[in-house]
From TrEMBL:
InterPro entries: Fosfomycin_Res_Enzymes (IPR051332), Glyas_Bleomycin-R_OHBP_Dase (IPR029068), Glyas_Fos-R_dOase_dom (IPR004360), VOC_core (IPR037523). It comes from the Bacteria. It comes from Pseudomonas arsenicoxydans. Residues 4-115 form the VOC domain. This is Glutathione transferase.
Length: 145
């Protein structure tokens, strides 16, 4: 049985540039580096940057992205730091809670989000997405159409 997300590995084309972005700009703790990679961490997150010269740095056209938690009090300062560094934004926020959507140097889509699953579900109960169903009974047999 799965118990959580173990780690996230992102392919990068310039390891030093990516380490600087994640460590200094996003302020994620640098734990280790080696010739072709780095480990960084936040509470509950193990992030691996893996050098891959074949990585295509164009952002994907789909909505796939990785979201980080941020406290509401720190959100405005964080957004201003990224905007001052000319980090590219890729989307406007369209959901509950403050969010800032941005790209890393290799075009990975990232988000800083104020809120959690409980706050999202509470907002969705008030204004559900089209066709949305809630499963409070975890023994329910779920069928997605």
């Amino acid at each position: 049985m799965l118990t959580g997300l173990n780690h996230l590995t992102l392919a990068v084309t310039d390891l030093n540039r990516s380490v600087a972005f994640y460590q200094h700009l996003l302020q994620i703790r640098l734990d280790a580096t080696w010739e072709n990679g780095a480990y960084l961490s936040l509470p509950g997150l193990w992030l691996c940057l893996s050098l891959d010269p074949l990585r295509q740095s164009e952002p994907a056209a789909d909505y796939t992205h990785y979201a980080f938690n941020i406290d509401a009090a720190n959100f405005p300062v964080f957004v201003e730091r990224l905007r001052s560094a000319h980090v590219q934004e890729w989307r406007d926020n369209r959901s509950e809670g403050a969010s800032f959507y941005f790209l890393d140097p290799d075009g990975h889509k990232l988000e800083a989000h104020v809120g959690d699953l409980a706050s999202r579900l509470a907002a969705c109960r008030e204004r559900p997405y089209a066709g949305m169903q809630f499963f409070d009974d975890q023994s329910a047999d779920i069928s997605v159409t």
